[in-house]
Amino acid sequence: MSDTTLPTPDARCDTIKVGIVSISDRASSGTYEDKGLPALRDWLDHALYNPIDYVERLIPDEQATISQTLIELVNAGCNLVLTTGGTGPAKRDVTPEATLAVAHKEMPGFGEQMRQVSLKFVPTAILSRQVAVIRDECLIINLPGQPKSIQETLGGLKDADGKQVVDGIFAAVPYCIDLIGGPYMETRDAFCKGWRPKTAIRSKRV
User: Fold this and answer.
1) Is 47 within the bounds of a domain?
2) Is 3 a domain residue?
3) 205 occurs within a structural domain
4) From 194's CA, which of 10, 44, 128, 176 has a CA 20 to 30 Å away?
């Protein structure tokens, strides 16, 4: 989805601090180029009007390192942390365990919906173990490792006419951030429409 002409953030919106973490032994060691961090930045830049202050990490599949990184990002003031990689059944896939270890609350609906979206594309989606949790005033979400899967999971599935068939998980993220005391996130609805109850809507961008 990479686009050399990214949308311009709207300075009237709250700036949000987002942690993005790519978890891969090979990418972190320089064996191959990491594609997770660029995919996350690209998608979020298209999805939100908000200016985004990114805090990036590229780390190996080490449970203690992952947990410590998540804690550091929350302590640094991130209201949203997205991880990519390490969520399968392989021996070195420990991202869910590391995430749950730092959780104050689990948010199981995110993992359920991620697998529902992915099952529209591949039957092996049932092997994914992504979780989402809240720590302090931060929502932490595990995402798949492939850029295409990241886009599908966050944005969902549309038909040939552009009608939303299956909602991606990001539709629920802005309201979740509201509820845990974070900044007001405004989505570019043509790309990915966030949902809030009418009483929680502050403004409507064109």
Assistant:
1) yes
2) no
3) no
4) 128
Q: Is 139 helix (H, G, I), strand (E, B) or coil?
A: strand
- Opening angle at CA 105, ends 104 and 111, nearest 5: 130
pLDDT at 2: 52
What stretches in the chain show pLDDT beneath 70? 1-4, 204-206
Predicted TM-score of the model (pTM): 0.94
Question: Among positive and negative, which fits the CA dihedral 37, 41, 44, 46?
Answer: negative
Element (H, E) at 98: helix 95-100
Structural domain boundaries, residue 124: 16-200
Give the pLDDT score at 158: 80
Structural domain count of the chain:
1
Distances (CA, A) of 28 to 15, 36, 68: 29, 11, 16
Predicted local confidence at residue 138, as pLDDT? 98
At 205 the pLDDT is: 59
Q: Is residue 9 part of a domain?
A: no
